Amino acid sequence: MNSASGAPRSGRVTIKQVAQRAGVSTASVSYVLSGRSGIAGRNGGVASETAVRIREAAEELGYAPDLAARKIRTGRTETILLSLTMLSDPWALAVIEAVQRRAMPLGITPMILADADWARVLKTHDADAMFIDAVADGQQGELEALARQGKKLVVFHEQIEPRGFEVIRSLAGPGCVLAMEHLLAKHQKIAILTTERARENRDPARFLPYLDGLRRAGLPLREEYLATFDRSPVSAYAAAMRLLDRPDRPTAIYATTDFAAMSAINAAQRLGITVGEDLDVVGVGNTLEGEAMAPSLTSVGPVGFFDELARILVERALGGSENSVTGGVVEFPWQLFIRDSAR
Amino acid sequence: MNSASGAPRSGRVTIKQVAQRAGVSTASVSYVLSGRSGIAGRNGGVASETAVRIREAAEELGYAPDLAARKIRTGRTETILLSLTMLSDPWALAVIEAVQRRAMPLGITPMILADADWARVLKTHDADAMFIDAVADGQQGELEALARQGKKLVVFHEQIEPRGFEVIRSLAGPGCVLAMEHLLAKHQKIAILTTERARENRDPARFLPYLDGLRRAGLPLREEYLATFDRSPVSAYAAAMRLLDRPDRPTAIYATTDFAAMSAINAAQRLGITVGEDLDVVGVGNTLEGEAMAPSLTSVGPVGFFDELARILVERALGGSENSVTGGVVEFPWQLFIRDSAR
DNA sequence: CTGTTAGCGCGTTCAA
DNA sequence: TTGAACGCGCTAACAG
């Protein structure tokens, strides 16, 4: 076929072949096909007619730039790497989708690494930004090493401190405080429905706000208003029953899980108690199931978390390599979503 | 810090810095750190002591090769790209896991592209092999274009013909034939539980084997033994009930879905019919749920599919670039797994 | 046997 | 608009 034209030893079409075909230098081709063609401040003054010819040649030859070669010069891969541990988790899918939406229009491709073992891969593979959703205990040093290598990391973690990398946190605590305040505005007899573990550990995010709320309001902590359950739906339902099936029952329930809150609502309905009137219920997690149930569940959850994560990731990916190597923390306080179960 | 030693303008440690620190040339470093150091036929004669010094230097500096730079010379990315459309599907997770297991020990990293729009990305991004799990109607040409670019593609599709790329098929048909034969060995009154769609289209894979089986056995097609359902579990359960809750009920059910087969078993149990004795049931899909239920479900499914897919992918990734650009078809006939629901 | 020199590959980008 | 250097690692050819 084309034995005299280019140099098609490899299947790949190079910039050189395009240049030859268009009758220009490789530099012009590069200017037109990648960087600014007719806009640039300095250079890039490529006659629009030449530009057209170049683009035609590229099209005809089916040229596509070799990103590896480009990367070596520019330092950019036009790629964002997402290291996700639990790919089956809807959470991971939400991350992917959000980043996808932000990045693709800018020509940045999100790639997923489905492996808890990011440390090994990220050492050699490059990306304009990397997201890591799980850091084991000993791995803190590896993060710092990667950061020193100039890698742009965004790490999802509740405690880790940023050392050259960005940290993003999803904080349930503030939202739980809001939930309690919401109930305290109208109620005095507020029960809690929580896990055994949260109570034992005095979980600062989900359990303590209950105690603090009562204390600040000058209300007593009543043992009989404290019900715990262990995972199973049955157990949560039973716990709610214990709470509600008594003469002096609470007028509000603060459940540390949406799922528990839903059980509580079911229990109440079973007892003929009208949720939203005789009983207010709030949950934690702001799940879709809670929002969909009747009455819709008032709950707390992170809002816009995925979008913000995507924004940060893309921002860091675009930021020049020498740029802000600050490494900060972005905290994501959960917020209250008032719905029918507790107006 | 190290202003006099290397050239650390960028955060990245290069082979040059390692060379300088070890007091050798970059060639030696390259030989030691990547290719064969003391084995090679020709060159590679690096004294083991020097090799140690080089490795130490690399270690101290935290050197990691730039894969992009390496790729440009070797043409290899040490990466396999998996374009997966339905990441939430267990099927996709199985693909990932299988490839992971095969590839990682060989130093090949699987990367996932969570985007139906592979055509755009794959044009510029490189990988030693690429897997595509979904091809839309118009996209056939794009596959060929990519193949011409020298890209190694493995495409999962039932009909597409290989043109420069590999095609892998998962064929339910043969398995369904086996399932019917299994039932025909012991039964004469065999019912089918299938979807409305499969019946209308006379699905060659899952529906026709039922008709053909009856015909070959010289059995009549009885309308009352043909029950259809539409998606919902409820619907499948009801259809099974219609089949079983009659005087002259079938002694075997061929269900075109594991999920429907499970509904049938439930229905039978509800009616006091002992599955595996009074009634044999086979499903299609060979899901884990079916295997786990009691009685365990006899079913047909692809065996070793994911492993084989992974093998092909890795093989193609390792194969030299000029190598077998054959492009063949690998068919994966489903097989019968006999369990308690139909011995 | 051990090690070095030098050029390559591809797209970018400066200086002319 | 272009020639040529450049970035990084690989590797053929060559020299102790």
From TrEMBL, chains A, B:
Gene3D superfamilies: 3.40.50.2300, lambda repressor-like DNA-binding domains. Residues 13-74 form the HTH lacI-type domain. GO terms for molecular function: DNA-binding transcription factor activity; transcription cis-regulatory region binding. Transmembrane segments: none annotated. InterPro entries: HTH_LacI (IPR000843), LacI/GalR-like_sensor (IPR046335), Lambda_DNA-bd_dom_sf (IPR010982), Peripla_BP_I (IPR028082). Coiled coil: none annotated. Pfam families: LacI, Peripla_BP_3. Keywords: DNA-binding, Transcription, Transcription regulation. This is LacI family transcriptional regulator. It comes from Psychromicrobium lacuslunae.
